[in-house]
Write a structure and sequence with these properties.
4-stranded mixed beta sheet; 148 residues; 3-stranded antiparallel beta sheet; single chain; alpha+beta; 7 strands; 2 domains; 5 helices; 2,3-Dihydroxybiphenyl 1,2-Dioxygenase, domain 1
Length: 148
């Protein structure tokens, strides 16, 4: 990562903002752009994420997780299998912990079509289907949304 490039881009955009979302605070350090009407956030470009061993008093929690936006079910399956191997733990709705206890969300942008689609009842069915899942199953979410 080019630190100078990142710093210059950050300074030019002046994008450091904090917003309260219910009990969750979101802090974004980076810049935003719109692509075909969709808001995209760039966060730390190619920076490495470093977790320090803080001893037993500072453990990982679901308060910090990484999302893996997968383009299809094969990618979901691949990342899910990789991260739950060797002691990882499945959770609910696409969440898991890897063998180190770090939380991940293995998801797909396709889910938005079902969870936020124009058919309100279909979205409710898709949500209920997702709540019963550990690993996301896009075909099942689509089936629930369509009422099949």
């Amino acid at each position: 990562m080019n630190i100078e490039k990142f710093h210059e881009r950050l300074q030019s955009s002046r994008r450091i903002h904090v917003k309260q979302i219910h009990e969750v605070m979101e802090i974004v350090l980076g810049w935003e752009s719109r692509n075909n009407g969709q808001l995209q956030k760039q966060f730390l470009e190619e920076a490495a994420l470093i977790g320090l061993n803080g001893g037993p008093q500072f453990t990982f929690s679901e308060a910090v997780s990484l999302q893996i936006p997968c383009s299809n079910q094969d990618e979901i399956d691949r990342y899910w299998d990789l991260l739950t191997a060797d002691g990882g733990q499945e959770s609910q709705c696409g969440w898991l912990k890897d063998k180190f206890g770090f939380s991940w969300q293995v998801i797909s942008p396709e889910m938005n079509q079902y969870l936020g689609g124009s058919d309100h009842e279909g979205a409710q069915r898709a949500t209920q289907a997702m709540l019963g899942m550990k690993k996301i199953n896009l075909a099942e979410m689509r089936k629930a949304y369509l009422g099949n």
